[in-house]
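INFO  loader      accepted 1 record
INFO  loader      residues=309
INFO  predictor   begin
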Amino acid sequence: MITTDKSHLTVAALSHPGEEREINEDRYSVTYYKRESDQMQVTLAIVADGIGGHQAGEVAAQLAVDEVSGAMADASGDDPVAELSEAIIGASRSISESSMQDEALQGMGSTIATAMVVGHRLYAVSVGDSRTYLVRSGEIQQISIDHTWVQEAITHGILTPEEARNHPNAHVLHRHLGGDQDPMPDARLRLSSGESDEASEANQGLMLTTHDRMLLCSDGLTDLVEDQEILEALSEHSPEEAANALVDMARARGGHDNITVVIVEVPAKDAARARGCLRSGMLLAAAGIVLLLLVAIGLGLSFYLGFWP
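INFO  predictor   done
INFO  writer      dumping tokens
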């Protein structure tokens, strides 16, 4: 893919270390591309939450973001899920290798949430408990699935979501980048709570519509801010205002962890059409001016050369 400096979507992002951490071990990136095969515009958003303590988590999260965005720049973009999954596994291996080479980095790892919008089709792959949400028609849905002990307990009916929220094992991860084995990237894009895994995977390539909004975030937000509150912030504010409001809300409630949010919105078609019409109008006006100048020059030459009737 070809890296570009503009997105066809509206994007806002914010990361804060929180109120108790000296180092921000979260990382994020938003990268824009064009597919070489058809010039389709692509936006790739990534949130990574480092684990390992001290500076190790920071290093792991940065490696995760850099490796995935770099690998996708070299990809064709024609098979987003497979390419994202391969890039995530490659990032995990880089984290593992770096951990083995430097004693200070031993045991480091990272979660990752990715959302890739090709044209207006959404592809999302994740590992760990950094989340991706979709807000559509006044409703919010967590479309990624946490890879935690408590999520497994909820899935098997051992805990209710309410019991899981403050459970001692709430942050025990079953999957993360780094470690001895490659993680299994999760390609389930869950649009409803009762969906089967097969149905969720079949949702990849979801067609987004005007005003759809996606939120990628670290657990520093979702530990302290409820889904309904996220919905209200995303529904009532612009993406930039919503990012600030969500981070401020988590900080006001203690901000015990790093807080990172990336918001991606499909802008109104009318606005895009208006911009297109404006550009077309300006081009027509410029062409008209050039035509008038040519006519004037032609008439002037005719008069000068004695061809004036």
